[in-house]
Each structure stands twice: as C-alpha cells, then as structure tokens.
Amino acid sequence: MSHKEQVRILCVEDDHLLARMYVEFLEDAGYAVETAWDGETALAVFDPERHDVILLDYALPKLNGMDVLRELTRHVSPPPVIMVTANGEEKTIVEAMKLGASDFLVKDSRAGFLQLLPVVIERTLEQHRLAREHKKLEARIWQRQKFESLGLMAAGVAHDFNNLLTSILGNASLALLDLEPGTAPYSNVKHVEEAARRAADLSTQMLAYSGQRRFLMQTLDLSELIGQIHDLIQTAIPEKIRIEYDLAHPLPHFDGDSNQVQQMLLDILTNSAEAIGESEGVIRVRTGMDTIPCEDLSDAYINDLPPGRCVYVEIGDTGCGMDAETRDRIFDPFFTTKFTGRGLGLAAVLGIVRGHKGAIQVRTDLDKGTTMRVFFSCEKTHAAAPAPRALDASSVADTSAGHHKTVLVVDDDPQVRDVTRVILERYGFIVVTAADGAEGLITFRNSPDAFSLALVNFSMPRMDGRQLFQEIRKLRPGTPVIICSGYSEFEIARRFVEESPTAFVQKPFQAHTLIEKILGALGARK
After folding, report:
1. What pLDDT shows up at residue 47?
2. Tell me, what DSSP letter sits at residue 386?
3. 308: left (phi > 0), else alpha (psi -120 to 50), else beta?
4. What is the C-alpha R_g of the chain?
5. At a CB cut-off of 8 Å and minimum separation 6, what does 451 contact?
6. Residue 127 to residue 306: CA distance in whole angstroms
7. Residue 367 and residue 365: Cα distance in Å, rounded?
8. Fold of 393-521
C-alpha cells in the first residue's frame, strides 16, 4: 500500500458538486476521502484516529469553518487542517492560521486549484510530522532537564541531611559506649540510633535518585541475578498474582551493582503488584539481548546507553495501567497514586538506571496494564573488584587503637567536626581540627611531619577537599588522606583523576565505621 492510500481525508464542503469533484480527484490520486456537508456533521463524524488531514471550507451553514476549527483544536492532538476559502482575503487567512489551521487554499471558478491539492496535502502532512517530532524532542529535553534538576536538588539535600545525621549517629554511638546494655537509657539511645539509620536510608534513596549513589560494579548475568531473588520475589508478591518467567540463557554479561539492580527489580515488581491490587493478575518477567538503534529508544525516560549490544529485563503486568498524566510523573520523587508517605518509589529506580548508564522505557494503557523495560550495555565488562578486607573486630573495639597518632580533621560543619574529634580522642588519637580547606592547609604546612593522617571533608568554602588533598600530597607525598562526604563515593571518585585519596567515608557514619576506615588507612591490621 502506498503512502497516499494510507492518508485518510475528511472533506467538509457544503457544495455537493464541488465535494464530488474533491472525492473523485483525490481518490484518483490515491487518497481515501470521507465527506461532511456542514460543520455540525463534520464535528459528529470527526475521529482523530481515523482522519489524517481535514479539508475545511470557510463558508458553511450552521457552523462556519472558523467555528469548526475552534472545536477541532480543543482535541489533545488534532490532525492538520487545510482551510479552503473562495475570497482569499488576507484577514480570513490570518484568522484561520491563528486558530490553528496548518495551511490554506483559495478556490477558483474553474476548479483549477484541485491540481494543487496533493501538493498542499503532502506539504501539510510533512510539516505536521516535523512539528510533532519537534514537540517530542522538546518534551524529552524538558523531561531530562527536570530529572537532572531534581537530581541535583536531591543530592544537595542528601548532602546537608547527612551532615546532620553524622552528628546524631556519631554522638549516639559514643553514648552507647558509656551505657550498660539492657538499661532504659541504653534502649532509648538505641531507638535514636535506629531512627537516624532510617533517616540515612532515605538520604541514600535521594542519592540513588540523583544517580550519585555508590555502586560496587561487578560482571553480572541478568537472568541469573533474577534467579537469585526468586524466593524473595515470591514472598513480596501476593499469592493471587501469578508470576511468569521467560529468562534467556545464556545472556551476555554487563557491569552492574548486584544489590542495586536487584533492588530496582523488586521496586518495579512491587509497583506492578500494587497496580493489580486485590484482584487476580499476572506479572511477566522476561530477559533478552538486542542491538537497539537510538531511534527505537526515542520514548525512553532516560537513555545513556552507548552504541552496541545491550541486555534488557522486561516486567509487564495486567494491572490498572496509567493515563498520560500519571505516566509523565511516575518517576517524580514521592509521587504516588496510592497514598502519601511512600518514599521515593520509582524515582530510586530511575536513579539506579541512570547510575548504570542504562535506559528505561514505559508502555502503558489505562485498564490494560503496564510494561517497563530496562536496558544495560553489555559492550564493555570488567572483572569484579575484590571486596576490601575487613578489620578484626578487636582492632575497632580497642579504645587505645590510636596509639597517640595525630589526625588532622578538616570540616566546615562545627557539629561534624566536634563529634569526629570526640570519637577519635575516645580511641586514643590526638586530634587537630580546622574549619575549612584553607585553614587546614595552613595547619598542615606548619608541621607536615606531625600528622599521621588527614580526614578531610569534600565540600568546603575557600578550598575544597580535592584541592586540600592535592596540596597535602605536594607537601608530603604519601600522606594518608581520607575524604569524607555526604555525597556518594561514586560521585567523589570522579573528581579525583590523577591521584586518588587513601579511603572514603560516607556520611553519616558511626564511630566504629570511622575507626575502621582510619585504621585501614594507617595499615593497622591484626
């Protein structure tokens, strides 16, 4: 079937003789034509799914062309309208174009204008196609900018939130050292510590949404990864819902954080189960491999895939589906159609996909269900990094572990600086503090050999942690430097190109976590 045979035209013309001429000429040219004799009939038979273009006469009984045009443009996505007028007055043409007409055509007494119809129709259709593509591109750009802006905000909030939690968790862990287990005060402080940890989990979710959460990359098989959490999936999904698996074996490997990818899968599956609700339903989980051109992912929410092969997981459900408005918001932080207080929800899924430089598509129909497909590149994979060796518990429990070693603590937050000092002194370290990078540099420069280690916050005024790290290494190469931040290690590591710090401490931290990192950096292994 040719392109013209696929184009369906609604011709609105009250002159029956001229309308028959339209139909004969256009059908001979390969178009499908439907006629309406007046404006009311045109509005009654109009179907945006059935009509690709509308030829609309200006002078019509009951409702004139302008009135019909106003009604047509109220539709969400109306087809292009070509206004046909006998007078050709500039005022009429301008008014029609302002109301949304895509083009116009002036009749002549000999009907010679019919020869121009195919040219005008094809030009109008091409302009309409380009305009729709431009609108889609603008929507994707806006959507990406929205996600990036919300991600930056989430990362900033998580950073400041983590500073506050560092003080709470640090002081709580210190207080527990002085309290007798089983007593009421010990129990009360434990509750404070537990609440702070839950708050830290929320902060971690915000970092996940921003794509800045720490990832421990390993070489993974997507089908095997799903198999590993099969029992957990069965527990999390209600018994009324049947889960069908179609897992490809073998699959090419990809680089990913197994915990994060599994959490992403569980979040999507939980969302699918909630969409089905109390009814019986089916969730289908499928994996595969493909080489997908960029244009096939033009509707993806996020697409950072490099060219080449990729693996994918597709999770579809028979739930309630979504309308367009809901679909556009499902990855917004804290958005839910259920009730408030649900956390980041699918926003964290988007962050995990972004952090893995993947892509995610969502296909949904109201009352028919939703299918999400997540893609990971399998072009380049690397061997899994070995896990860091854990310190002997006795090293951390030893409150004389510092052996009078001197540590320079540099942090612009006074509460973090104070709790860090108290923790280190509790474990036998001598602590010297500085309120920002510039002050820390002056302190270190005055006596570089006095310090066994520097614990440096990353984000500070006047001189940040990266700049201070570089200056310390210039003054005394090999000095152990630990970077501490409310941002993730993944994000911080990108800022150090030529030389990396000795270790990284994620805020908020507890006393034993900080001591483990410091003893590890100093080589204190037992």
Report:
1. 86
2. P
3. left
4. 32
5. 406, 407, 408, 432, 444, 479
6. 31
7. 6
8. Rossmann fold (3.40.50)
Nearest by Cα to 458 from 147, 150, 149, 155: 155
Q: How crowded is residue 253: how many other Cβ atoms within 10 Å of its Cβ?
A: 17
Three-state SS at 432: strand
Residues 224-280 have pLDDT tens digits of 999 999 888 988 899 899 999 999 988 999 998 888 898 889 989 998 998 998 889
Give the burial string for 141-176 (b: 16+ CB within 10 Å, else e).
eeeeeebeebbeebbebbbebbbbbbbbbbbbbbbb
Q: Which CATH class is domain 218-377?
A: alpha beta
Report the C-alpha gap between 461 and 443 in whole angstroms: 16
Residue 429 tokens read as 């370290």
**pLDDT for res 341:** 44
Confidence check: pLDDT of 388 > 50: no
The two tokens of residue 109 are: 């007494």
Asked if 304 contacts 146 with a C-beta cutoff of 8 angstroms, the reply is: no
Chain position carrying tokens 């002085």: 178
* pLDDT band for position 4 (cuts 50, 70, 90): very low
The answer to whether the CB of 209 falls within 8 A of the CB of 154 is yes
DSSP state of 449: G
Eight-state DSSP code of residue 377: E
* Among the four given CATH numbers 1.10.3720.10, 3.30.200.20, 3.30.110.70, 3.40.50.2300, the one describing domain 3-107: 3.40.50.2300
Are both 3-107 and 393-521 of the same fold?
yes
pLDDT at 402 over 90: no
Q: 448: cis peptide before it, omega within 30°?
A: no
Using DSSP bridges, classify how beta strands 503-506 and 254-256 pair: parallel, antiparallel or unpaired: unpaired
For helices 117-177 and 414-426, the axis angle rounded to 10 degrees is 40
Q: Report the C-alpha gap between 324 and 76 in whole angstroms.
A: 11
Strands 103-106 and 81-85: parallel
Please report the beta strands in 422-472, taking only residues with DSSP state E, as ranges in sequence order: 430-434, 453-457
Rounded to whole angstroms, how far apart are CA atoms 374 and 358?
7
How big, in percent rounded to 5, are the helix, strand and coil portions of the chain? 45, 20, 35
End-to-end Cα distance, the chain:
78
CA atoms within 13 A on the CB side of 374: 24
Domain extent listing, the chain: 3-107, 141-210, 218-377, 393-521
Closest CA to 406 of 522, 275, 242: 522
Q: Which two tokens stand for residue 253?
A: 């490997």
Q: What is the reported pLDDT for 296?
A: 65
Most confident stretch, 35-44, 128-137, 354-363, 476-485: 476-485
